[in-house]
Amino acid sequence: MGDIFRTVPSRPTEVAADSVLDRARTGDDEAFNHLVAPLRRELHAHCYRMLGSTHDADDALQDALLRAWRGLPRFEGRSSLRSWLYSVATRVCLDTVAARGRRALPVDLGPASDSAVVGDAPLDGIAWLGPYPDRDLADGPAHPDARCEQREAVELAFVAALQHLPGNQRAALLLFEVLGFSAAEIATMMNTSTTSVNSALARARRLVADRVGPASQQHTLRKIGDARLRQIVDGYATALENADADALVALLTEDVTWSMPPLPAWYTGRRAVTDFAVRVPLSTCGTWRHLPTHANGQPAVASYLDPDGSGTHRAWSIDVLTLRGDRVAAITSFLDPEVFGHFGLPASLP
């Protein structure tokens, strides 16, 4: 991407790109928007990986583009515009991490509950990890491997693991492993030494390897195939809508987990998950409706709840399904109706 900003007179498209850059440096906002538009989605995904929240990613990207707009006259073209924008966005994210800390899932806060916690209340004062809509991923090459890599880099286990890294290690790992920058380029971006970057990378790789399984969700999904995947997603939604505990349990691995940020309680193993399902969502919540969606490169279901028989089912949660083989190994239900807009989903269903 950055190559188009080099001045090579024999290539008219590159000359035109330099002309747009020159106009942007003089304060032409249309020219600036033209330059950053192709990079906006991938920068947003980078901010999400760093911060674990679409809301924070929105704010960070807006702040980064404002800083870039103000600093563009000082951009000398020694690196590509893409590299420079990633430098700006990364610094914004590092400032946010330093001020706010990491985002968590219920599993990070305490042991699993052995039985259903009825009336569990949201835990205040915790910055919770949030889901990421696949529709926000960059429009990458059509090659399946490229699409797979994009989705692997936002998978829930990976983003959750990143939150356990200090900001500098998080940034170094993402810039090197996901985005393909060299250690020397990262050192320039982060105003440090190549030795420090390599040290941060080594520590980050060890921690992430300990927390992320050997097989990515993309590998699992390719092995399952689209037809079986649709059966699993439809079966999950139908079991909840019909209050069918047996159908739900048939979809689950023996060691399945279910968590519902911002509720602190979480469950592991079929017995505990079944007890929760029977005593809460399948009996006492109300009636459910669902729409299939995709989040964090994984199958997901948008859940809508009518708690009182009013006839209107309102946005309730985005349930991200993590699969092992052709069974559900984890359900992460993000109870945040505000994210439905990011997914392009309606606020209610009949």
UniProtKB/TrEMBL annotation:
Residue ranges of every copy of the RNA polymerase sigma factor 70 region 4 type domain listed in the record: 157-206
Gene3D superfamilies: 1.10.1740.10, 3.10.450.50, Winged helix-like DNA-binding domain superfamily/Winged helix DNA-binding domain
Entry keyword set: Sigma factor, Transcription, Transcription regulation
A biological process from GO: DNA-templated transcription initiation
GO molecular function: DNA binding; sigma factor activity
Keyword match Transcription: yes
Family: Belongs to the sigma-70 factor family. ECF subfamily.
Provenance organism: Micromonospora pallida
Subunit structure: Interacts transiently with the RNA polymerase catalytic core formed by RpoA, RpoB, RpoC and RpoZ (2 alpha, 1 beta, 1 beta' and 1 omega subunit) to form the RNA polymerase holoenzyme that can initiate transcription.
Annotated Pfam families: Sigma70_r2 (PF04542), Sigma70_r4_2 (PF08281), SnoaL_2 (PF12680)
Domain of life where this protein originates: Bacteria
Residue ranges of every copy of the RNA polymerase sigma-70 region domain listed in the record: 35-102
Matching InterPro entries: NTF2-like_dom_sf, RNA_pol_sigma-70-like, RNA_pol_sigma-70_dom, RNA_pol_sigma-G_actinobac, RNA_pol_sigma70_r2, RNA_pol_sigma70_r4_t2, RNA_pol_sigma_r2, RNA_pol_sigma_r3/r4-like
Domain SnoaL-like: 234-330
Protein's recorded name: RNA polymerase, sigma subunit, ECF family
